[in-house]
Specification:
Blueprint lengths: L1 E8 L14 E7 L2 H18 L2 E5 L3 E5 L4 E4 L4 E4 L1 E8 L2 E2 L11 E2 L13
Antiparallel strand pairs: 1-2, 1-7, 3-4, 3-9, 4-7, 5-6, 7-8
Pfam families: DUF1033
Protein name: DUF1033 family protein
InterPro entries: DUF1033 (IPR010434)
């Protein structure tokens, strides 16, 4: 089964931290890989029009953000960038090599502000 998930939180989707599933805000499931890819690519294009900054990876992972959308982290004592992310997964795992290609890797030139808290 293939899933397209939308996430919202402090981290880009490729981190897959221990509790990453807590950031899922929506989920669609597909039996057919080609249908899932078509839906993912349409969603990717829609979100690129909405957010000023984005980065996508060849593994069907993408994140979008607005530098003005941050939340204060008491523990970190700093603002954390908030990311709207999407992922196309198979059984909640990254798709195996060969299911994707480098054409999906892109980013615009808007800066991203990494958090010291996020890096450990």
């Amino acid at each position: 089964m293939y899933q397209i998930i939308k996430l919202y939180g402090d981290f880009e989707p490729w981190w897959f931290l221990e509790d990453w599933k807590n950031d899922i805000v929506s989920l669609q499931e597909f039996q057919d890989f080609n249908v899932a890819v078509k839906e993912y690519l349409e969603l990717l294009q829609r979100l690129k029009k909405v957010f000023p900054s984005f980065e996508s990876r060849s593994s069907f992972l993408a994140t979008f953000w607005d530098v003005n959308e941050q939340r204060w982290c008491e523990e970190c004592d700093e603002n954390l960038q908030q990311y709207h992310s999407i992922a196309l997964l198979k059984d909640f795992e990254i798709l195996p090599v060969g299911c994707h290609d480098k054409l999906l890797e892109e980013a615009n030139d808007q800066p991203k502000f990494p958090s010291a808290c996020a890096l450990g």
